[in-house]
Amino acid sequence: MPRQRVLSGMRPTGALHLGHYHGALKNWVRLQSSYDCFFFVADWHALTTHYQHREGLEQSVYDMVVDWLAAGVDPEQATLFIQSRMPEHAELFTLLAMSTPSSWLERMPSYKDMVAENRELATYGFLGYPLLQAADILIYKAGFVPVGEDQAPHVEVTREVARRFNHLYAPLLPEPQALLTETSRLPGLDGRKMSKTYGNAIAMRDAPEVVADKVRRMPTDPQRVRRQDPGDPTQCPVWALHQVYADSDTRAWIDAGCRSAGIGCLDCKQPLIDAIQREQAPWRERADELLADPKKVHWIVEVGTERARAVARKTLKEVRVAMGLAY
Ligand code: SF4
């Protein structure tokens, strides 16, 4: 039986951090053996919000793909490609736009808020972004889209777009389902969401000494001023990272040691440093090999793009026929 198709994209943000790994990539690696996975670099999506920032885009794209591969995304199992290399997405986007009520896009949660906050986002491209996403998904007839809860409305609009197309023309585009999977939202070094913008991230390829330095400088429970002061782990961003990295014995040791001042904060941070460095070691090894052979990365993307194109073209052909455009 053919495997169900999963589609997921990531904006090219350059080198990825541990938040990207635990929030998405780890899941991709898990999914690729059970589903026919299509993973793409969403560079057009990046331009919907950062259209003035073209410098460094190419570098960001390839740095990110290197991190995907380093994390264990396997181009033999999954299809990796770049959105802007696929004009087929743009054609389907245009065709779907004809019958999509603009109110569906205007009512997307966050659209109005984001435009009110930043007038530079009052563009046609940003408004149309969920429809472009729908085209990205529907062109591959993906059965599933892995999402966090906040993105579920985007899958919903894709389903509505598909329903409308199927009703108006022909039952061609399957409605995808949101695949709610177990991911961890990794907090950053200061307890807020891990983000390059906040300067609180550990990159997937940070050198071991950089990781150690970043973790040692992390703020801790503000009440624990001196070594002999007891602390409360729930008030500490280090503890939040231990939730992802430490086993239950280590967590019990920290909880008791922190509350009784039996351990110091540097003692507490060491197992975290060790765990992150252990996790990174195979990534670094794979990334070093790829960085020494950049043509290989380009080739992987090339092969994936052509594989994706064959599927996209087939769907477009059907869509053109259904819409009376096969001349
Ligand atoms: Fe945070 Fe650990 Fe220090 Fe407690 S011992 S305040 S959990 S770093």
Give an overview of the whole structure.
This protein is mainly alpha-helical and 327 residues long. It folds into two domains: 5-186 and 294-322, HUPs (Rossmann fold), CATH 3.40.50.620; 208-287, Tyrosyl-Transfer RNA Synthetase. It is built from 14 helices and five strands. It has helices at residues 18-31, 43-49, 57-71, 87-97, 102-106, 111-117, 124-127, 129-138, 152-168, 208-216, 237-245, 248-259, 265-291, 294-322, and strands spanning 5-10, 36-41, 79-82, 144-147, 177-180. A three-stranded parallel beta sheet has the order 1-2-3. The protein has a two-stranded parallel sheet with strand order 4-5. 35% of the residues are buried. The mean pLDDT is 93. The chain binds iron/sulfur cluster. L-tryptophan binds at residue 136. This is Tryptophan--tRNA ligase. Homodimer. Catalyzes the attachment of tryptophan to tRNA(Trp).
Key descriptive features of the protein:
327 residues; Rossmann fold; Tyrosyl-Transfer RNA Synthetase; 2 domains; two-stranded parallel ribbon; 54% helix; binds iron/sulfur cluster; tryptophan-tRNA ligase activity; ATP-binding; aminoacyl-trna synthetase; Tryptophan--tRNA ligase
